Amino acid sequence: QGQVVESGGGVVPPGKSLRLSCRTSGSTFRFFNMHWVRQAPGRGLEWVASTSDDDANKEYADSVRGRFTVSRDNSQNTVSLLMDNLRVDDTAVYFCARRYCLANSCSLDFWGQGSLVIVS
Amino acid sequence: DIQLTQSPSSLSASVGGRVTITCRASQSVDTHLNWYKQTPGTAPKVLIYGASHLQSGVPARFSGSGSGTHFSLTIDDLRPEDFATYYCQQSSSARWTFGQGTKVDVK
Fold it and tell me: How close A95 gets to chain B, by Cα (Å)?
């Protein structure tokens, strides 16, 4: 079935940039939309962004639109989240997840372990 | 964006008991509503998709119902491993959203 592994997290000062990577294993991931979800310390889940299987269609939450860019390289089985102009309230664990559709409904069925980003 | 409101925010229950969590959407999401379970330090896990379909491998004591703007997740015969935080999530609109979560702990 494959795996999803995030990397690239760390501590970054406000206003700076950071790129998260999500490496997927298994050749079928290139056929699925991929999403990013984050969770601030002690808080709930927040949907962040998504990209379609061909990287042609992207969506962003209002809180990150204009600052974050999602992209993918199917030849490398990777999805990236470029985060610019980071703010303190972007501090969170960032999860990469696969969208899977069944019975005319879609959910996130494969998740990475998360990558911690601290803006301070 | 579509807002999802879960209730209650937290609840206490006993092993062997039954709990019901509700999720209300700010506008109709048809049946494009999913439920996830999360334990501390781990990634969420999908339990129910399409409002009422049980994800493969999830025990049958979990069930979901609803459509439009009102949904519920019911857990029968609570097991120790069920004490966790549960989230609803809508996939009706292009920008997905989650509910704020419901923490289920031991009474």
Answer: 8
